[in-house]
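Long-time lurker, first post. I've been practising inverse folding by hand and with some scripts of my own, and I keep getting stuck on stretches where the structure tokens seem ambiguous. Below is the full token string for one chain I'm working on. Before anyone asks, I'm not after the true native sequence, just a reasonable design that respects the backbone. If someone could post their per-position residues I'd love to compare against what I wrote down in my notebook.
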């Protein structure tokens, strides 16, 4: 009875309303993780910049590089060795100093296949990182071949010791002293400092994380439980600490008492609410329950935009974004149910792309004015890249689509309206996977109609809850699936790496030797003009010939914002640092 009473008291206490935070904002999707090495969604990254501080940060208005946890750095003459000095007053929320070894620990775990980090390959610019990944994969493979009696807890721990010794010797990241971190690269990487601002490169607190780490005796893998990211356990080194997190409900951030850096919080308390219904989220803003809605997906968004343009509202905002909305093609030869996959043929993918009228989708489905996307990388978003607009992509051409589909062996051979191959096998119904509560199903419906009228190809729509959709995407349990990508750093590779064989974000299973050759040649190229030429050809190849994705439009970000909110950035690469946001209580209409 005593235990039951204590548990009940804990539940009641956790559900007790808190005073309204100084800033309240709403996301349509919940945060999936607070582990920076495992993050891959925008709402998670936004929190990363609040809870952690990397070596460097971007200026959120200009995206120039600024010091953060590192107070200074030097670069060797051959552009291969970077040496960072960490601020003496950099502190974890426990009060302990932030050490160079904390970065070593975090970056190692990002590389290991045990962590299954989507961004592991970003670390492969570091000397020995790709070799470490391969060493660990081979180590686990050999361990799995041992007889069961030899796979013991002590054997698994010995495997990890061997791994650490190998990394100490071969990985190009080392703590020269408590405050000095040295990083050696495989090859000169012109955007490396920009990369270090990204969330995946943030440190974690080793003692906290290790309390939730174990080694699986059967597989030898390092098992990393998520308990360290929960309130009462969480340790960060950023401007905020976590005091409450109720998954799919809300999260409470409070200014960290130990943080002494430049990212001083302007709002001492922030509440993040998850409101998965777009309509409910807008209603929450309209009633004053939230100060900022980070994404607006309601069917009547065109009416909100029109009201702002006509001067009837002052709380609707939109900005160009460094991102593209697209649909993934499953490029693997065999679907998860064992059927042959016709989309494995790039001619079929291109035919489907040629049959889609993107302008009609933008003008008649979306109706808010996003730019039509013929390229994967938003045009003119990167200085010096494709400035002549030579990458044209594919344009709406139903006749060419029919010819290409027939070239791939699929046509209506007997005039019955059914597309089939030479063996008489009908073209399978294309299953379009998307998430609920947004415009994706309407885009899918538009494509359905276009494909059926232009090609005689039928399709169906499968709508999933966000987490289930994400799981299906990672398993490639789909034929086509909605997708979206926002650049993580200021270089074309932040988009094009998604197509590289084996990349953690290559959810399409696309693997093309020609693309990999171009991409890898660009990573070795020292001349910046020649390097961009190679990347331009890699993008042209994928948006005009092999089509791993079907770009639809380049994102425009729509917000609902209390006009008194200060600190939001309108830069296309915006991260919206939470420490810069504050409600101006002196502005007109303040309470």
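-- Answer (accepted) --
I ran through it position by position. Result:
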């Amino acid at each position: 009875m005593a235990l039951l009473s204590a548990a009940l008291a804990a539940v009641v206490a956790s559900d007790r309303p808190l005073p309204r935070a100084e800033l309240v904002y709403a996301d349509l999707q919940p945060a999936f993780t607070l582990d920076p090495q495992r993050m891959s969604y925008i709402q998670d990254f936004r929190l990363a910049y609040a809870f952690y501080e990397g070596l460097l940060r971007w200026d959120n208005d200009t995206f120039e590089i600024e010091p953060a946890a590192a107070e200074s750095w030097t670069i060797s003459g051959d552009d291969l060795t970077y040496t960072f000095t960490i601020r003496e007053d950099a502190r974890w929320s426990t009060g302990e100093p932030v050490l160079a070894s904390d970065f070593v620990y975090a970056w190692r775990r990002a590389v290991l296949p045990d962590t299954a980090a989507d961004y592991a390959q970003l670390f492969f610019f570091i000397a020995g990182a790709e070799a470490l990944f391969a060493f660990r994969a081979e180590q686990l493979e050999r361990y799995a071949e041992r007889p069961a009696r030899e796979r013991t807890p002590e054997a698994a721990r010995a495997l990890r010791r061997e791994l650490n010794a190998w990394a100490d010797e071969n990985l190009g990241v080392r703590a020269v002293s408590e405050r000095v971190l040295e990083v050696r690269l495989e090859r000169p990487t012109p955007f490396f400092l920009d990369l270090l601002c990204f969330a995946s490169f943030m440190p974690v607190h080793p003692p906290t994380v290790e309390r939730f780490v174990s080694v699986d005796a059967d597989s030898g893998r390092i098992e990393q439980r998520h308990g360290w990211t929960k309130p009462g356990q969480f340790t960060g080194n950023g401007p905020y600490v976590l005091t409450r997190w109720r998954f799919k409900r809300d999260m409470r951030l409070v200014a960290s008492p130990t943080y002494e850096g430049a990212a001083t919080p302007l709002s001492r308390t922030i509440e993040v609410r998850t409101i998965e219904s777009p309509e409910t989220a807008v209603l929450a803003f309209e009633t004053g329950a939230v100060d900022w809605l980070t994404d607006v997906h309601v069917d009547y968004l065109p009416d909100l935009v029109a009201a702002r343009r006509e001067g009837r509202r002052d709380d609707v905002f939109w900005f160009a974004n460094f991102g593209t909305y697209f649909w993934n093609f499953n490029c693997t030869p065999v679907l998860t149910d064992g059927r042959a996959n016709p989309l494995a043929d790039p001619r079929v993918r291109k035919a489907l792309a040629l049959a889609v009228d993107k302008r009609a989708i933008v003008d008649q489905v979306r109706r808010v004015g996003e730019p039509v996307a013929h390229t994967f990388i938003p045009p003119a978003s990167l200085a010096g890249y494709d400035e002549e607009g030579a990458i044209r992509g594919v344009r709406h051409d139903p006749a060419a689509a029919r010819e290409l589909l027939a070239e791939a062996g699929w046509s209506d051979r007997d005039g019955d309206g059914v597309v089939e191959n030479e063996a008489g096998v009908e073209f399978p119904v294309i299953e379009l996977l998307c998430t609920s509560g947004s415009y994706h199903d309407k885009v899918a419906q538009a494509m359905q109609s276009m494909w059926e009228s232009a090609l005689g190809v039928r399709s169906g729509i499968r709508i999933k809850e966000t987490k289930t959709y994400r799981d299906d995407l990672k398993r490639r349990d789909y034929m086509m699936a909605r997708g979206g990508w926002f650049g993580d750093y200021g270089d074309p590779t932040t988009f094009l790496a998604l197509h590289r064989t084996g990349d953690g974000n290559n959810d399409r299973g696309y693997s093309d030797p020609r693309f990999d050759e171009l991409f890898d040649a660009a990573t070795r190229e020292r001349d910046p003009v020649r390097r961009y030429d190679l990347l331009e050809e890699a993008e042209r190849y994928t948006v005009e010939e092999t089509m791993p994705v079907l770009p639809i439009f380049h994102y425009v970000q729509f917000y609902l914002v209390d006009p008194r909110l200060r600190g939001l950035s309108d830069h296309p690469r915006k991260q919206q640092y939470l420490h810069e946001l504050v409600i101006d209580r002196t502005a007109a209409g303040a309470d």
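A couple of notes from the structure itself: The domain at 322-555 is CATH 3.10.105.10 (Dipeptide-binding Protein; domain 3). The CA atoms of residues 98 and 114 lie 25 Å apart. Happy to go over any region you disagree with.
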